[in-house]
Design brief:
Layout (H helix, E strand, L loop, with lengths): L3 H15 L9 E6 L2 E5 L8 E5 L4 E4 L5 H14 L4 E5 L5 H4 L11 E4 H7 L1 H13 L15 E3 L2 E6 L2 E7 L8 E5 L4 E9 L11 H12 L5 E6 L5 H24 L3 H15 L9 H12 L3
Parallel strand pairs: 4-5, 5-6, 6-7, 11-12
Antiparallel strand pairs: 1-2, 2-3, 3-4, 8-9, 9-10, 10-11
The structure holds zinc ion.
């Protein structure tokens, strides 16, 4: 199931999915807890960056879509502290979370799941950047793909200053997602396993895995959920994301059992979801999400 056929469709869909991004929104910095900050919005693509200030130094999670945007993150860090940046982490390989890596190369440690390195090194990384270049994001030409230089398979622990971070691999949005659990802060930094107020990007997603990941996250003792896109929030942010995926899976399966074509399935589910999720951004991504789920469950 996880073969090249899917990859081809991902590529075709991706152009549709990323088109229409808002270029002009300025980044906003939210102080989530003491010492924990999230930059939301930003020019190019609205992916979030989070940073934690420990007594020993700073940990940066995701690096935005261009070096220029990444430098803005560094400026935000420097407004808060002059301590060194100890670690940079990519929650997954997508360019809007990793193409600013070169700006954080001086931290010497860029950490991710091993599949992130595979997706960003050699030809794969070049192709991913080439795709982003077609989107004409301001500043993208400056990007030098910089894969993580420290990877893990299932779980990694970081102790820094007064904090303990657990980096846990759970695929779903991609095959190399990680989320970060900081138990002392009851906080989950979810990467793109959670979108808040936005239809999720599902270009290389697996719905079943994604729901499993959210079930796992939901069992952890947490109060704050920092999504990959959209504002940080409480448990409802997690519940809404999980509900979206479960409802998508259920409705697509019903149509497949009835023998509906992809187009018929989209025509049934699209209007229901347009109404149900009318306050979410990127409703134009619904058709491709329905297609992604249809591909996953329509196994003959
Ligand atoms: Zn993503």
């Amino acid at each position: 199931m996880r073969g090249n056929g899917l990859k081809l469709i991902v590529f075709i869909l991706a152009g549709l999915l990323y088109s229409g991004a808002a270029w002009a929104e300025k980044a906003k910095t939210v102080e989530v807890w003491k010492n924990l900050f999230t930059l939301t919005h930003g020019e190019g693509i609205d992916s979030n960056t989070t940073f934690l200030i420990t007594k020993e130094g700073v940990i940066v999670i995701d690096t935005r879509v261009t070096p220029a945007e990444a430098r803005k993150v560094k400026e935000e860090v420097r407004k808060q502290t002059q301590l060194p940046i100890l670690y940079t982490i990519n929650t997954h390989y997508h360019g809007d979370h990793s193409f600013g890596n070169q700006v954080f190369k001086d931290s010497h440690t860029i950490i991710a799941h091993e599949n992130v390195r595979k997706a960003l090194e050699y030809e794969a990384g070049k192709e991913h950047l080439d795709f982003f270049k077609t989107l004409k994001i301001p500043g993208i030409e400056e990007t030098v793909v910089t894969p993580p230089n420290m990877v893990f398979k299932e779980k990694m622990h970081i102790w820094a200053g007064e904090y303990h971070l657990e980096l846990i691999h759970m695929p779903g949005h991609t095959d190399g997602d990680l989320f970060i659990y900081i138990e002392a802060l009851k906080t989950i930094i979810a990467g793109d396993l959670i979108f808040n107020g936005k239809i999720p990007y599902m270009g290389d997603a697996y719905v079943d895995d994604w729901i499993k990941a959210l079930d796992y996250i939901g069992d952890l003792d947490a109060e704050i959920y920092i999504p990959g896109h959209g504002a940080p929030g409480g448990k409802p942010v997690l519940i809404a994301m999980r509900h979206y995926l479960i409802d998508l899976r259920r409705r697509v399966k019903v149509q497949i059992e009835k023998g509906s074509s992809l187009k018929e399935t989209q025509d049934v589910i699209r209007p229901i979801f347009q109404e149900k999720f009318k306050n979410w951004k990127k409703l134009e991504w619904l058709d491709s999400n329905i297609e992604r789920a249809y591909m996953e469950y329509n196994i003959k």
